[in-house]
C-alpha cells in the first residue's frame, strides 16, 4: 500500500471519530465535551496540511505542470459542459481524487430536453427523466481497462433546492468519509500509456461492456452514463490522472480532439467516432 493511500485512509478514520463519539454519548445519555468531539477532525485536517507542506504535495496537490494530453471525446452527440477546467483549476474546488482538471458533461439533445433545476417541487426525479441517463460512454483512445467498479444504485436526482442541500450537508459528507468509491460511484479507469489514465465516474449500474484487462479501441462503447455516487443528476464526470487509483492519483490536463476543452455552460457537439480500418489479412504463403 502506498504512503498516499495510508494517509487518505487515516484521514477518513479521523473524520469518523466525531461521529462515533457523538453516537456513544447520545446512546448513553451523557453530555459530551466539544473539544474531544472536534479533536479528531482537527487532527485529520492537520495531517493533510502537514503532508501537503512537507510531503511532496501528496495526496491532494498536483504534481508539476504537464502539457495537456489530447484524446477523443468520451461522448457523442449534443452535450453541455459543467465544472470545467477551462474556467478554473481545480475545476471542482479540490485537487483530491485526481480532480484538478476534471469536467462534468450533461446531455442536451435539444433545448428543454433536460429537466431544469427546481426550487421546491419536484424535490427529486427518476434518473431516466434525464437524457444523459443511458447514453453510451466511449473509449477516448486505444487503451487497457485497469479498473471496473460496479454495483452501486442509480439514485434519484438531487436537482432541487431541498435535494441539493441534502447532498451537500448530509449525503456528501457521509460519502466523503466512506471512501473514494462512494464519491465516484460506479466507475471505470483506462490505462492510456505514458503514465496517463482516464477515469469515467457515475456510470450506470450493470451497463459495463468491458472487464479489467480488456484492450479497447478508441470510440468503443465501454458503459452507459448513470447517476451513481456523489451526483446531483445523471452525467459523466471525466478526468485524466497520473495513476489508476483516484484516491491517490493527481490530475492531468486534457484536451478533446476537435473540441478543445468546453467552458462551463458551453454546448458542444461531439461527432460519432470514425470506424477503425480493418486489419489487413495475413498474406497467403508463397
TrEMBL record:
Every M23ase beta-sheet core domain range: 171-242
GO MF, any single term: metalloendopeptidase activity
Key word Transmembrane present: yes
Compositional bias of kind Pro residues: 272-286
Positions with biased composition (Basic and acidic residues): 60-69
Transmembrane segments annotated in the record for this chain: 12-28, 34-54
Ranges for region Disordered: 58-93, 267-286
InterPro entries listed in its UniProt record: Cell_wall_metabolism_enzyme, Dup_hybrid_motif, M23ase_b-sheet_dom
Statement: the UniProt record of this protein carries the keyword Membrane: yes
UniProt keyword list: Membrane, Transmembrane, Transmembrane helix
Protein name: Peptidase family M23
Amino acid at each position: 500500500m502506498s504512503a498516499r493511500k495510508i494517509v487518505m485512509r487515516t484521514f477518513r478514520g479521523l473524520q469518523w471519530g466525531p461521529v462515533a463519539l457523538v453516537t456513544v454519548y447520545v446512546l448513553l445519555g451523557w453530555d459530551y465535551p466539544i473539544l474531544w468531539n472536534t479533536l479528531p477532525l482537527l487532527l485529520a485536517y492537520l495531517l493533510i496540511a502537514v503532508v501537503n507542506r512537507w510531503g511532496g504535495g501528496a495526496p491532494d496537490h498536483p504534481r508539476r505542470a504537464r502539457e495537456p494530453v489530447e484524446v477523443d471525446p468520451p461522448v457523442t452527440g449534443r452535450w453541455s459542459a459543467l465544472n470545467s477546467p477551462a474556467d478554473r483549476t481545480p475545476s471542482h474546488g479540490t485537487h483530491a481524487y485526481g480532480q484538478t482538471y476534471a469536467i462534468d458533461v450533461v446531455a442536451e439533445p435539444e433545448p428543454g430536453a433536460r429537466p431544469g433545476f427546481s426550487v421546491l417541487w419536484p424535490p427529486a426525479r427518476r434518473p431516466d427523466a434525464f437524457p444523459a441517463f443511458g447514453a453510451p460512454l466511449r473509449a477516448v483512445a486505444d487503451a487497457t481497462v485497469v479498473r471496473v467498479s460496479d454495483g452501486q444504485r442509480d439514485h434519484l436526482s438531487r436537482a432541487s433546492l431541498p435535494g441539493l442541500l441534502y447532498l451537500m450537508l448530509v449525503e456528501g459528507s457521509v460519502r466523503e468519509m466512506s471512501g473514494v468509491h462512494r464519491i465516484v460511484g460506479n466507475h471505470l479507469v483506462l490505462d492510456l500509456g505514458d503514465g496517463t489514465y482516464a477515469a469515467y465516474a457515475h456510470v450506470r449500474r450493470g451497463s459495463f461492456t468491458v472487464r479489467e484487462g480488456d484492450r479497447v479501441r478508441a470510440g468503443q462503447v465501454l458503459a452507459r452514463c448513470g447517476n451513481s455516487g456523489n451526483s446531483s443528476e445523471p452525467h459523466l464526470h471525466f478526468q485524466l490522472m497520473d495513476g489508476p487509483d483516484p484516491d491517490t492519483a493527481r490530475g492531468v490536463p486534457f484536451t478533446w480532439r476537435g473540441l478543445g476543452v468546453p467552458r462551463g455552460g458551453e454546448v458542444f457537439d461531439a461527432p460519432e467516432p470514425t470506424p477503425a480500418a480493418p486489419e489487413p489479412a495475413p498474406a497467403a504463403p508463397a
